[in-house]
Amino acid sequence: MAEVVTVASSATGPNYAFVYILFILAGLLVGGAWSAYQAENRRATYGLAVIAAVAIIAALYMLIGEMS
Predict the structure, then answer these.
(1) What pLDDT was estimated at residue 54?
(2) Once rounded to an integer, what is the mean pLDDT over residues 57-65?
(3) Are 53 and 31 in contact (CB under 8 A)?
(4) Is residue 34, in this structure, part of any structural domain at all?
(5) Global pTM exceeds 0.90
(6) Contact predicate 57/34, CB 8 Å
(7) Which of 16, 23, 31, 33 is close enough to 48 for a disulfide, judged by CB 3.0 to 4.6 Å?
(8) Where are the alpha helices (DSSP H) in the chain?
(9) How does pLDDT run across 14-38, given as a tens digit for each residue?
(10) Structurally, how many domains does the chain consist of?
(11) Collapsing DSSP states into helix, strand and coil, what is residue 49?
(12) How far is 49 from 21, CA to CA, in rounded Å?
């Protein structure tokens, strides 16, 4: 019976919570960049857009890393 529990606990798969959090964060940052763009605040627009791009790239990198 102990072997079944060991196999079942090891087969739960990867934890994607951090990837979901990164995508949510990236979405909020894109929304902030859009708001800054509409307010004609270029510095905030560029800053938020760069941070959002980094969050998206990090999330995709983690997902691709899990597939290989």
Answers:
(1) 97
(2) 91
(3) no
(4) yes
(5) no
(6) no
(7) 33
(8) 2-10, 17-38, 42-67
(9) 678 889 999 999 999 999 999 999 9
(10) 1
(11) helix
(12) 17
Classify residue 40 by its DSSP letter. Answer: T
pLDDT at 11 over 80: no
Residue 4 lies in a domain: no
pLDDT of residue 16: 83
User: Does 1 reside within a domain?
Assistant: no
For residue 68, the SS3 value is coil
Domain membership flag for residue 57: yes
- Classify burial at 60, counting beta carbons within 10 Å of its beta carbon; exposed 0-12, middle 13-18, buried 19 or more: middle
Cα separation of 18 and 4, whole Å? 28
Domain extent at residue 40: 15-67
- Dihedral sign for Cα atoms in the order 23, 25, 27, 30: negative
Residue 39, SS3?
Answer: coil
